[in-house]
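Could you join me in thinking about how sequence relates to backbone shape in a protein? We need material for that, and I hope you will provide a protein of your own picking. Once you have written the record down, we can walk along the chain together:

…
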Amino acid sequence: MVTPGFNVRKRLLDTTDDDFDKVIDLNLKGTYRLRRAFGAAMATRGTGSIVTFARFCALVVEPGQGLYAAAKAGVVQLTKTMATELGTHGVRVNAIVPGPFETALTAQIKADTE
């Protein structure tokens, strides 16, 4: 299971290039690198399963989550691509895209009236 994750809770106009790099590097590039490394070994063996967690914001707009959403949408697309490329080698590739649930972090989001 692959689950790297990092978020910067800022509206897009308030983000910096450094924010972008941190979020994309861990969430998208980190996932890509892990999948590539493990996927190659699984394809060689002819079996395996890669499961990644994305998040509902990959599909639904949520203010203050733009960079994270873009990264997780990229994870979903990498999942689809890798599934088609590795499926013929006996490797399953899936993403779980959970919806929101009550946590301390979602309480912070719900409290933002903007």
